[in-house]
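Figure-free illustration: sequence to structure, shown twice.
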Amino acid sequence: IQYNDARTIFCVADHPCEGVDAVLVDGQPAGEWQAYTLVDASNHAITVVEFGQRQDEGANLVARVRGKLHPVTGQRMVNPATVIWDVLANIGGRAVAEADLDPFRRECDRLGLDVGGRIAAGESPQDVARAICESIGAQFCADAPGLCRIAGSAAVARARVSEGPITAQVSLDAMANDLTVRYGYEDGEPSGSVQLEAPDYVARFGRRKADLEARWITSPRVAYAVAERLLRDRARPQWQITQITVPRTVRVFDGITLAHPLAPVAGTFAVLSREVDLANSRSAVTLSTPIGDVPAVRLVRQAFAYGAQSYAGVVQQTVGTDRIYTITEADGRPVVGASVLANGFTRTTDAAGRVVFPISALPPGSYVFQITALDGRTWPYPTVVT
């Protein structure tokens, strides 16, 4: 957003940021610029980018930032639970405590999930929370304990059902054995996608495709992990179990232990929806569980937008007789154990995402590095060595 009349200073975030990694003008890396935090006329801290020269009217300006900092710890907020809490409590003014999302936070940490994104005009705090959850294969319910849960995760049993009416049917509606996740949204468009399939279930049921517009995922690592986890459930048919009557106190995401003689499955399952009967203080709930063995999943295709912005994750430097390249994901995490082929020489990145080539292997000239991550993703990195 233009900040001064000279069109040299632009606001990129209405909060302090950990850093600005790249600035693009009409899709190309900007020349002279600097980013910093200042206090606006309303005494509110914002992050701005200042250019060395005036920017033309109508120019498409994009800044890639490492986002909002936690108001207490000062750390960048990337855990989905922390981001949702910030959106609901600090932006939306809802009465939500950070501790309310602790179970969801721990599960996201265990799965290595992190997010980043931009709130569009007109989105409500609950819309944003739902969008974040949809991006990572989770569920959000404003009335549920803990507010959010990872789809398919274990639920705490609150009631047991062994008698009464019950309806069960197999549903293929949500089945998908070929899943494409699009991620890394900038200026409304994804910068990458990953496609996975469950070949055994494709052979059994035919190809059933689905797409996930994961606009809160920034990392190809997270996109791959989410696609893999979702496909292991969604490639299989689902039992939909309805008309189960439980106490009214049972809420969405609570667990129901099913031990009914007419039920096709037994175990504890999370409540996906409920309908309260005000006359008798009971609720009719719906459960769901996949059928069959967990499928093997394989990568079909990956795609990247090979514009200049794709290479912000590679930093190069020359130290003594070595050329050192540090390769990171879009969220700043190092790409560990990746194979890097350059000018006929292959090296592997260390725990910091660094790979070292001797100067003799890379004399001055133009090269295209071929980078292959441990999860099978590959991408080129063109560079000029001087």
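We now fold a second protein in the same way, so the two outputs can be compared directly.
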Amino acid sequence: MYAVIETGGKQYKVQKDDVIYVEKIGEEQDSQVEFKVVAYGDDQNISFGNPYVESAKVLGKVIKNGKKKKITVFTYKPKKSCKRKMGHRQPYTKIQIQEIIPDVSKYV
């Protein structure tokens, strides 16, 4: 079974025990997080939400918070002798997916 979750303005296709890197979440290390489910299913059946599947949820565990590798940004204006060099490190959260709980109302 897989699910499509939404966090940080992006969507991720996840399965149980997957490890994903998402935009930084304000949670501490080893804490439990819950994600909104956009769609879930297997190879035979897929259920879509409008925009979310209300009773389905995905549980994950925060492994660590960190920063990615530094990128260098260089801006300039031609013929004006104006230059600027900057660096940026994007913060992220590393999460392990622990459980996918499907929409139980369909099976009752």
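Summary for the second example: DSSP finds no helices and nine strands in the chain.
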